[in-house]
Amino acid sequence: MPNTLRLFDISGKVAVVTGAAGGLGGAISRGLNAAGAKVLAADICDPKVAFDQEIAFLRTDVSLRSDVDALIEEACNRFGRIDLMVSNAAIGGGAAAEKETEEGWDKVMSVNAKGPFLCASASARKMIPQGGGCIVNIASVLSFLGHPTAVSYCASKGAVAQLTRTLAIEWAKYKIRVNAIAPGFFRTAMNAGMLASEELLKPIIAKTPLGRIAEPDEIVGTVIYLASDASSFMTGSVVVVDGGDLAAGGYTDLTLPYIYDTL
Ligand SMILES: NC(=O)c1ccc[n+]([C@@H]2O[C@H](COP(=O)([O-])OP(=O)(O)OC[C@H]3O[C@@H](n4cnc5c(N)ncnc54)[C@H](O)[C@@H]3O)[C@@H](O)[C@H]2O)c1
């Protein structure tokens, strides 16, 4: 293999992926497996499309410490170590802020923010004596932008970005790199409602410079990059994969003319 390609080599690495029954988690699990990693996929639900035999699966609720500890133990018992933790599981939350309930807030925060913390700390307890590892948290463009009717989700994704930065500086001394990926709008079940409506989809496409939504496989390259030596000097970063959405500052319709032309 040429040296530059070897930089991206993750073959033989042991990876755990949460939320693996979903759109991005399924793509990440299959993508890592195709790149030669040994994958333990986890989700609170069984996958709708079964994984092939090379990908192991364990039912896991990431909001429960006992489940997460059992997941990491399973990876180490089965494969002997853990090199990569991809914390991808999350749920949406769709209430107007003034109507969001305490239960709704707690549920979203426990899966989306506590889940990645539990997964990171259980992984680190194995990675520290191993001499290092990589953690990749799946954040969101809503780690940076506010969005109406998503108060708990936005708060939880802001927390994922801060969790990533804090763990990165704390665990750098153990050679554990902690980074996050902030996806824009991807075609997954989480967006089923919007994907079913031309009317709702049109403004999303109009505000995205690349002029389309993303397919789940388009997240895989960035995960491999962050898991490999190609990113050896990166830690504490939140890498945006959003078709240019954030660069446009959430500008609502990029097909509109530049208004200052008329002044
Ligand atoms: N799809 C997008 O446009 C988009 C944009 C930004 C960020 N994200 C993030 O990407 C990640 C993946 O989302 P997706 O779009 O694939 O959604 P998805 O709904 O297809 O997948 C999420 C998965 O998480 C699982 N899950 C929910 N609660 C769980 C729990 N307690 N324990 C374990 N698993 C649990 C679900 O069963 C589901 O399979 C999430 O972190 C999401 O916030 C997605």
Structural notes for this entry:
The protein has 263 residues and is α/β, with parallel strands linked by helices. The protein has one domain (3-190, 214-251): NAD(P)-binding Rossmann-like Domain (Rossmann fold, 3-Layer(aba) Sandwich), CATH 3.40.50. Helices cover 39% and strands 14% of the residues. The protein is built from 8 helices and 7 strands, in the order αβαββαβαβαβαααβ. It has helices spanning 3-6, 23-34, 65-79, 102-130, 151-171, 192-195, 198-206, 220-227; strands at residues 14-18, 38-43, 56-59, 84-87, 133-138, 176-183, 238-241. The relative contact order is 0.14. Bound molecules: nicotinamide-adenine-dinucleotide.
Main sheet record: 7 strands, parallel
Describe the global form: globular
H-E string: HEHEEHEHEHEHHHE
What is the CATH architecture assignment?
3-Layer(aba) Sandwich
Backbone CA Rg? 19 Å
Q: CATH-wise, what's the superfamily?
A: NAD(P)-binding Rossmann-like Domain
- In CATH, what is the class? Alpha Beta
Residue share in β-strands = 5-15%
Q: Can you list the strand order of the major beta sheet? A: 3-2-1-4-5-6-7
The termini sit apart by 57 Å
- SS element count, helices: 8
Count of discrete domains: 1
